[in-house]
């Protein structure tokens, strides 16, 4: 084989997965109990994201000056992409357009998921740190925020789980790594709970419109699998907490 | 937490008395518990994570790349990023300049040299994950992070592994790009266990009157008259040594006696801290999950 095949005729991808298989997923909550109100760690393949949530708190305690809103919380999402996250070291400026776009997308998504009326005139600060990057950035960030918000005890309507889906000629591929991401057009979808309701959808490439439905269907299936994995972890933590209380 | 004048006076008086009474009833030489792991980042040559009970946490990565240069000064680059602080803030610049002086002063550069023209360049990136929420409203300056970040760098450098060079080291006649062994099992440690050139560790101590306290907590930093940032290397005080202000209010100079005492304190702490960090570096979990 002269070059890497994205999808072999036998139906295997570069890393040996089938079209509808997720990468190894692992997550933890409450990883930084002293530093934040809620924290989580999410690993999807070789993408590792840490999320620290502070809040809900008074607006004058927030690091950046924010004006309180009477309708709900102000959600500040900062994405930090340290220079060592990729394979090649590359320093990024703090206000890079792609990162601020990412935080705006996430902010919009979570303002639809947090029970707004409980948190009027407060600030919730979310700090994401990407420790290692191998594709599916938005998806991993979204999953880690969900877990960290749950850990912080902030009321949500349901989980938001996200995954990226790409298209290779006629086949839809689930949960792309960075090599696949650089070759294929892909879309990231985020689903609320185990419904079919999409809370997040982002596509930065060109996609044939007639294939979009197939992609989204596969994405929803992947999101439901991820939701189950996250829910299992949260339940385990909950059982452990309850056993300590007695 | 911002302290009231009464609280400040109480903490100051108990620290300045001959029998030092610290807010958390520690001995003057005692550290608070630290948690550390190393080599957990898959994309770095060496990495470490170290955190304190105040919620300060440093993640350090060491990445190596091959550079064609004769300039030995640019081989080690230190970069500090503190969450919520601009890259050109006093704190970031101050910490990275102290760290780069500490790490470049006692580094065995022959380990980095590949051939006559090519060398490894080491990028040491320190990320401080979160700082206390009351940093803006309180009087501490967080220069005590130097101590934590320096321990993180030490641990990351101790766990750094470089690929084995298979091409010749002499390229005076034929210009040849260095080639490396494909087998990661045969990698070499940047700092072997029997090496003499260990990175310099920096310690920040608080000075209150004639008393010197190790690892000042955030409350103690607010009342400290001054702070010293002292390097330690293999049983001795090493460069750089400089005074840092731990608090933005009530700063004062310090006596000669306090300076000598702080040197003694660092000598005393240094060996214990080095041993502890070396034990962690030897364990080498090598898995991301193990670090969290």
TrEMBL record, chain A:
It comes from the Eukaryota. One of its GO terms (molecular function) is RNA binding. Residues 21-154, 158-221 form the Exoribonuclease phosphorolytic domain. Its main location: cytoplasm. The keyword Acyltransferase does not apply. One of its GO terms (biological process) is rRNA catabolic process. Gene3D superfamilies: GHMP Kinase, N-terminal domain. GO terms for cellular component: cytoplasmic exosome (RNase complex); nuclear exosome (RNase complex); nucleolus. It is found in: Cytoplasm; Nucleus, Nucleolus. Keywords: Cytoplasm, Exosome. PANTHER family: EXOSOME COMPLEX COMPONENT, EXOSOME COMPLEX COMPONENT RRP41. Component of the RNA exosome complex. Specifically part of the catalytically inactive RNA exosome core complex (Exo-9) which may associate with the catalytic subunits RRP6 and DIS3 in cytoplasmic- and nuclear-specific RNA exosome complex forms. Exo-9 is formed by a hexameric base ring of RNase PH domain-containing subunits and a cap ring consisting of CSL4, RRP4 and RRP40. Belongs to the RNase PH family. This is Ribosomal RNA-processing protein 41. It comes from Dekkera bruxellensis. The gene is SKI6.
From TrEMBL, chain B:
Residues 30-163 form the Exoribonuclease phosphorolytic domain. The keyword Cytoplasm applies. It is found in: Cytoplasm; Nucleus, Nucleolus. One of its GO terms (molecular function) is mRNA 3'-UTR AU-rich region binding. It holds the Pfam family RNase_PH. GO terms for cellular component: cytoplasmic exosome (RNase complex); nuclear exosome (RNase complex); nucleolus. Its main location: cytoplasm. Gene3D superfamilies: GHMP Kinase, N-terminal domain (3.30.230.70). GO terms for biological process: exonucleolytic trimming to generate mature 3'-end of 5.8S rRNA from tricistronic rRNA transcript (SSU-rRNA, 5.8S rRNA, LSU-rRNA); nuclear mRNA surveillance; nuclear polyadenylation-dependent rRNA catabolic process; rRNA catabolic process; TRAMP-dependent tRNA surveillance pathway; U1 snRNA 3'-end processing; U4 snRNA 3'-end processing; U5 snRNA 3'-end processing. SUPFAM superfamilies: Ribonuclease PH domain 2-like, Ribosomal protein S5 domain 2-like. Keywords: Cytoplasm, Exosome. Belongs to the RNase PH family. PANTHER family: EXOSOME COMPLEX COMPONENT RRP42, EXOSOME COMPLEX EXONUCLEASE RIBOSOMAL RNA PROCESSING PROTEIN. This is Ribosomal RNA-processing protein 42. It comes from Dekkera bruxellensis. The lineage of its organism: Eukaryota, Fungi, Dikarya, Ascomycota, Saccharomycotina.
